């Protein structure tokens, strides 16, 4: 295949000259996983909701207010008439039951697309020979769509966060037909989904993640997202929301993606939660509120008398919930850009009344972040976002400016400790994300890495408990992004403390790349105009 491609390029060299920027082989996304499946209790919960049209105690319990956690302000927004009207959310998954009564009204049939078969058939797969083992995977698209836009008031399964929004059902992969069931998502299928109808879709929600650390994003999906942010939604930018993966994951590292994790019951750490400093926000992923351990979603077995599932949870559930909240915000403020939405999310986040509230720290800009890397800035309150929506309109550019600085090894090092310093004295702007790029020959020997800002904020980039089990896996990337310094000023002394086994390390190359809010034109000087500068100390 590679020879055929080369021959084609040679034959059409002058036709393609100056048009091809990069070529990358299409690959199956390694260990791409659909998150949020509770296998242990799935069978029991499904038996509980074989209602055949009748209501169980759990159904009646859901019909009670609040529908969603009071801390997220969703029910309160509904009372203000904010229900997602006029907003379209794309769910990128594997299969949907588009004629299910919970979904049919809100699925835009003109925006259903299967990027594998290149047609409009996005039917959820159902392997009858393995019905008990497969239903929980193959229903994943219905689950996510239900959280965003399930019909309200039909007394069936649930009410979506943005129950008057529309769903673009995009099937981007398939399943293997053997057991154990495996997801098959290619980068080509992913790219088609991310780039699909960017002028008609407002939000793209991806409840999937790679389970491999330092698995970079391929050029196709990366550029599809970049074009969407620049040109989508009439130039205001498509909003991309994704479930979190392990550290170094390309989707979590992206400056264009709102990365979401789940919060466990009563604000605990969910047992399958990833620790990642790139998380921006979280939501309650175990149930509809912080104290529930279930949520109802549309089942593809509706025709067999099983209208609902009650086994959906995790970051897969938290991600469409955040996408639904963003849909509510965009109904109220459709003029906000994708980047303004990110700033608004940080400003309207909350961490009160969680069992883990004590482990939130205040950064130098006054924003509280979770120091153990599971929750980002906490959870969203939609009504607070509405109240603060005017505070982000001064951020005009869709793409932040960047500047990179080199870290230098300071003082004596030993076999288990190294300290690197970067002194930033030509840049003093308001930060968004900080990306730490560590030479691969150094990275594989690190058991813990902590970055300290000039304002005293600390961010744990690598923790041995999360990293050592994967240390021998091949790494495509060597960058770790942190959101913990959001809003701080960049100038001053940055310190990176490394613990590990460094006996054989010869290259201690580390770069810090800052993304920041560009100063106003009258505040810019020659130093801040140059976003490619390197400072060596």
TrEMBL record:
Keyword NAD attributed: no
Domain P/Homo B: 449-500
SUPFAM superfamilies: Galactose-binding domain-like, Subtilisin-like
UniProtKB keywords: Cleavage on pair of basic residues, Hydrolase, Protease, Serine protease
All residue ranges annotated as the Peptidase S8/S53 domain in the record: 84-352
Gene3D superfamilies (alphabetical): Galactose-binding domain-like, Peptidase S8/S53 domain
Positions annotated as active site in the UniProt record: 93 (charge relay system), 140 (charge relay system), 316 (charge relay system)
Tree of life domain: Eukaryota
Coiled coil: none
Family: Belongs to the peptidase S8 family.
UniProt protein name: NEC2-like protein
């Amino acid at each position: 295949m590679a020879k055929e491609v080369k021959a084609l390029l040679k034959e059409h060299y002058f036709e393609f000259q100056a048009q091809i920027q990069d070529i990358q082989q299409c690959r199956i996304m390694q260990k791409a996983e659909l998150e949020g499946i509770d296998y242990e209790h799935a069978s029991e919960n499904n038996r509980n909701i074989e209602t055949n049209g009748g209501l169980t105690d759990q159904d009646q319990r859901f019909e009670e207010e609040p529908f969603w956690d009071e801390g997220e302000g969703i029910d309160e927004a509904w009372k203000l008439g904010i229900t997602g009207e006029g907003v379209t959310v794309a769910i990128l998954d594997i299969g949907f039951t588009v004629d299910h009564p919970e979904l049919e009204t809100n699925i835009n049939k003109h925006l259903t697309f299967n990027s594998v078969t290149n047609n409009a058939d996005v039917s959820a797969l159902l392997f009858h020979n393995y019905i008990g083992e497969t239903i929980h995977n193959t229903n994943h698209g219905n689950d996510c769509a239900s959280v965003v836009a399930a019909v309200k008031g039909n007394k069936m399964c649930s009410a979506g966060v943005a129950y008057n929004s529309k769903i673009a059902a995009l099937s981007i992969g398939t399943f293997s037909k053997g057991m154990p069931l495996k997801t098959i998502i290619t980068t080509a299928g992913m790219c088609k989904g991310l780039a699909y109808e960017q002028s008609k879709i407002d939000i793209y929600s991806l409840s999937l993640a790679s389970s491999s650390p330092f698995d970079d994003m391929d050029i196709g999906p990366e550029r599809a997202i970049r074009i969407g942010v620049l040109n989508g939604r009439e130039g205001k930018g498509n909003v991309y929301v994704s479930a979190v993966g392990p550290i170094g994951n390309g989707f979590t590292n992206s400056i264009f993606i709102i990365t979401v994790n789940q919060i466990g019951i009563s604000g605990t750490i969910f047992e399958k939660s990833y620790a990642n400093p790139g998380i921006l926000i979280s939501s309650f992923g175990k149930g509809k509120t912080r104290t529930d351990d279930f949520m109802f979603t549309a089942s593809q077995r509706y025709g067999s008398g099983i209208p609902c599932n009650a086994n959906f949870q995790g970051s897969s559930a938290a991600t469409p919930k955040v996408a639904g909240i963003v849909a509510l915000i965009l109904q109220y403020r459709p003029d906000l850009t994708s980047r303004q939405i990110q700033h608004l999310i940080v400003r309207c986040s909350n961490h009160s009344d969680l069992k883990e509230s004590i482990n939130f720290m205040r950064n130098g800009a006054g924003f509280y972040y979770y120091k153990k890397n599971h929750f980002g800035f906490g959870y969203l309150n939609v009504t607070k976002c509405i109240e603060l929506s005017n505070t982000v309109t001064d951020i005009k550019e869709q793409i932040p400016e960047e500047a990179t600085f080199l870290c230098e090894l300071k003082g004596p090092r030993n076999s288990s400790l190294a300290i690197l310093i970067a002194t930033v004295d030509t840049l003093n702007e308001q930060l968004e994300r900080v990306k730490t790029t560590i030479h691969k020959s150094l990275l594989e020997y690190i058991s813990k890495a902590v970055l300290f800002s000039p304002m005293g904020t600390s961010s744990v980039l690598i923790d041995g408990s999360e990293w050592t089990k994967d240390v021998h896996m091949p790494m495509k990337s060597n960058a770790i992004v942190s959101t913990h310094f959001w809003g701080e000023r960049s100038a001053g002394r940055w310190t990176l403390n490394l613990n590990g086994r460094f006996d054989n390390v010869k290259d201690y190359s580390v770069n810090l790349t800052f993304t920041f809010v560009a100063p106003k034109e009258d505040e810019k000087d020659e130093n801040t105009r140059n976003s490619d500068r390197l400072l060596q100390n």
